[in-house]
Specification:
Layout lengths: L24 H15 L8 E2 L13 E4 L5 E8 L4 H11 L13 H8 L3 H13 L3 E6 L4 E7 H8 L3 E4 L4 E4 L4 E2 L1 H4 L2 E5 L46 E3 L6 E3 L3 E3 L2 H7 L3 H6 L10 E5 L5 H10 L7 E5 L11 H14 L5 E5 L10 H12 L4 E4 L8 H17 L3 E5 L6 E6 L2 E8 L11 E8 L15 E3 L12 E7 L13 E4 L2 E4 L7 E6 L1 H4 L9 E6 L2 H19 L7 H9 L2 H4 L1 E2 L28 E2 L1 H9 L9 E3 L2 E7 L8 E6 L8 E7 L4 E3 L7 E2 L4 E8 L5 E2 L3 E7 L6 E9 L1
Parallel strand pairs: 13-15, 13-16, 14-15, 16-17, 17-20, 20-24, 30-38
Antiparallel strand pairs: 1-8, 2-6, 3-5, 3-9, 4-5, 6-7, 10-11, 11-12, 18-19, 20-21, 22-23, 25-26, 27-28, 29-31, 31-35, 32-34, 32-37, 33-35, 36-38, 37-38
């Protein structure tokens, strides 16, 4: 969902689904009832229909009769997870500090043993599909998926559905849910491939023939729902370094934000100076993508902005690389800005390839690959699906995200760049509709949806960002973009949203937000120059620095912040939202969350939602004050098993009444060789003794210490009543104590 600055080009038009009047859903249903009996046997009373397994909004398409029975289909059956009640309970217990399962994560093997389909389930489904005449092309327990091929006629008969065609006949869809015998319905949760009214992954190059315009005549968004302006040349401007790295001034456009500006604005700098950079043995950040990339732009980004070298391990989840294509711009943005927010973290890039994908869904493969690999505690996804049946989101994808949560992985997903507008599919790409909706992948209750903001930074005379400035919801006119947010049409409200969110009984997004506007202020990205002048990215164009934006910027940046928390905790976090929402409920300032109270996510004629105090459907809980949020979040997790406080007692003798003693010092040390950082909550004493508060709120790495002063000001002569100084922190031996004694003269 990369957004680059662009001019509203009337040469581009939003695609119509098909010219002419659209048939209403009632007419399609009537035609289905009339024709279904001619091509499918009567539905057996014992058969079970898989709910939510046909495309939504068929009334948007011009009905053109039955699909050709000989038309070949590539299909997939997703198998159910077992013991769903036990899985829900485990996920809740893993986030419950009072449970013995708190933060006890599963391995992929353990998850498969307890909750995955069995080999017998897989064989039962395979045997049945083969008996229907389908050709099995792959079967995987790890993916919970069987892929197979057959014709429209075979599928219509086997699943007892009517498969209709639309418009000129190139589009097709099943008008009702597939039906299965009880023994197969017991193990299968969804069938994919009975329609092509969806975008499983974006069309990575602009189509040669433009779809016909809608009656509104508005210019269309780029058909890619991730790198939206890669075909348009950047504004004629010279990009020059300012006198202060890494902020840059673009002649004719103004200042933009570099990594150090981001770190200053969102108060990461104090953490980075302490050594909290996302390093350590706890793992990596996983980035999802569908294009290979050239090394040049990423190296240029690191060199220009004085970032350390970036270790990236590429994982080919579909065995081979798809090569470099139009999605390279998204890859560059995600890899560069995850690194900017967590400069010490290694990265893993999970790359899918449609040419070798078993189900021709490379994006789904890449997501599954990051979870099956289980190497990275934090994963960022800057893509969206559209047009899929509900079952794709609440079974296929949700099963993957449940596994991620059970393994302790934290998943951030861009909430979308189309404000409150729902998306529909056309030509394998996603476009905004005139109705409200959300990215249902981002609305999954096991992931964190990231919205977008805009702001005007405060620059010093050298052109560098100096401190935080008020933010508002990202909301540019169509087709540039606005932060996604609204109410899910599929997922009910999760328990962590019971308080503080609208009483709408649905999953609300976004959860949080971050910088997204490509002009206000815009973040600098190095891209392959070939991707700027055309959609034919080839990795041979050299590197070019441009300003960009979108929630695909905010998602990997938030993933970087979460990676700092992983380092501080010395362990995985799992689902991010339960702790996020409990922290926010205590107060956003205390939690380190900037409350966004202005703006809305109206977009392209679709009325969105207004920002306001507390949680809202335009910005969630707001953006990060990382210097406060990271230790606040880490303090909710198990801290180091023990810390030392020296000395254990202080004595102040013969201090003149009415005067204050010279300071004596107490040192709190987080011992080395334990991975968890220490978060100090409070230091309290009483009477005539005062303790400096400089260590309160401090976050202390292994082998490091914080020292504070204690003073005594006797109010009367003679021995003072003994006082016990208490240090409360997140260590296992909290609170620690220091005995204070004194006498006045």
């Amino acid at each position: 969902m990369l957004k680059q600055p662009r001019k509203n080009s009337t040469a581009q038009r939003r695609p119509a689904i098909f010219p002419g009047s659209l048939k209403c859903l009632a007419m399609i249903a009537a035609a289905t009832l009339t024709l279904a009996g001619a091509i499918t046997p009567a539905l057996a009373q014992s058969a079970i229909r898989l709910a939510g397994n046909h495309p939504p909004h068929l009334d948007r398409y011009a009905y053109a009769g039955l699909a050709d029975a000989a038309r070949p289909l590539t299909m997939a059956m997703t198998l159910k997870l077992r013991n769903p009640g036990a899985l829900d309970q485990l996920l809740a217990e893993q986030q419950d500090p009072s449970s013995p399962n708190y933060h006890r994560w599963l391995t992929p093997q353990q998850f498969a043993t307890r909750f995955g389909p069995t080999a017998a389930d897989l064989q039962t489904a395979e045997d049945w599909l083969a008996a229907q005449g389908f050709a099995i092309t792959s079967a995987s327990l790890a993916r919970r998926m069987i892929t197979f091929t057959g014709s429209v006629g075979q599928a219509s008969q086997a699943f007892n559905v009517s498969i209709l065609k639309f418009g000129g006949g190139d589009l097709y869809a099943n008008a009702d849910d597939p039906a299965l015998p009880p023994q197969i319905a017991a193990v299968a949760e969804s069938i994919q491939g009975l329609d092509n009214l969806h975008a499983a992954s974006p069309l990575l190059n602009r189509p040669a023939a433009r779809p016909a315009p809608l009656s509104s005549g508005k210019p269309a968004a780029h058909p890619m729902r991730l790198a939206e302006n890669t075909d348009d040349a950047p504004p004629p401007a010279t990009i020059l370094p300012s006198r202060s790295q890494p902020n840059y001034f673009v002649n004719g456009l103004g200042n933009f934000v570099g990594p150090a500006d981001f770190q200053t604005f969102y108060n990461e700098t104090p953490l980075l100076k302490l050594g909290l950079k996302g390093s350590g043995p706890a793992g990596c950040i996983g980035i999802i993508g569908v294009s290979d990339y050239a090394a040049g732009p990423i190296a240029a980004f690191n060199q220009r902005f004085r970032l350390p070298g970036q270790p990236i391990k590429k994982i080919l989840v579909d065995v081979s690389s798809p090569g470099i294509n139009g999605a390279e711009v998204e890859t560059d943005l995600d890899l560069e800005w995850a690194h900017a927010a967590a400069p010490g973290s290694p990265l893993r890039y999970y790359l899918g390839n449609s040419a070798t994908s078993p189900d021709s869904n490379e994006l789904l493969d890449a997501i599954q690959g990051a979870v099956s690999d289980n190497a990275c505690p934090v994963v960022s996804i800057s893509y969206s699906f559209c047009g899929y049946p509900a079952s794709f989101y609440n079974s296929t994808l949700d099963g993957i995200f449940q596994q991620a949560a059970a393994q302790g992985q934290t998943v951030f997903i861009a909430a979308g760049d189309d404000g409150a507008a729902a998306l529909y599919a056309s030509g394998g790409s996603c476009y905004p509709t005139n109705q409200r909706g959300v990215s249902e992948m981002a609305a999954d209750p096991n992931v964190t949806a990231v919205g977008g903001t805009q702001f005007t930074p405060l620059y010093n005379s050298r052109g560098a960002v100096t401190n935080y400035a008020p933010e508002s919801v990202w909301d540019n006119p169509y087709p540039n973009g606005a932060g996604g947010g609204g109410q899910s049409g599929i997922f009910p409200k999760p328990t962590y949203q019971d308080a503080g969110t609208p009483g709408d009984d649905t999953r609300d997004i976004p959860d949080i937000s971050l910088i997204a506007n490509e002009f206000e202020p815009g973040a600098l990205v190095y891209l392959d120059k070939s991707c700027i002048v055309s959609s034919a990215c080839n990795g041979k164009g050299g590197s070019l620095l441009i300003p960009a934006g979108g929630t695909s910027l905010s998602s990997p940046a938030w993933a970087g912040i979460a990676r700092l928390i992983v380092q501080a905790a010395g362990a995985r976090l799992g689902a991010f939202n339960p702790t996020l929402y409990s922290l926010a409920a205590l107060g956003q300032d205390q939690a380190g969350l900037h409350d966004i109270t202005t703006g809305n996510n109206n977009y392209d004629g679709v009325a969105g939602f207004n920002a306001g105090a507390g949680y809202d459907l335009a910005s969630g809980w707001g953006t990060a004050n990382a210097g406060v949020f990271v230790p606040a979040y880490a303090s909710q997790l198990p801290g180091p098993p023990t810390v030392t406080v020296r000395p254990s007692a202080l004595a102040f003798n013969n201090i003149v009444v009415g005067r204050t003693s010279l300071p004596k010092f107490v040192t709190i040390t987080n011992p080395p060789r334990q991975p968890t950082w220490l978060v100090i909550g409070s230091i309290t004493g009483g009477g005539d003794f005062t303790a400096a508060q400089n260590c309160v709120g401090a976050i202390i790495g292994p082998g490091r210490a914080c020292r504070f002063a204690v003073r005594y000001a006797p109010s009367a002569s003679g021995p003072a009543a003994p006082v016990t100084l208490q240090i409360a922190d997140d260590a296992g031996n909290s609170p620690q104590t220091v005995a204070l004694t004194g006498s006045g003269r």
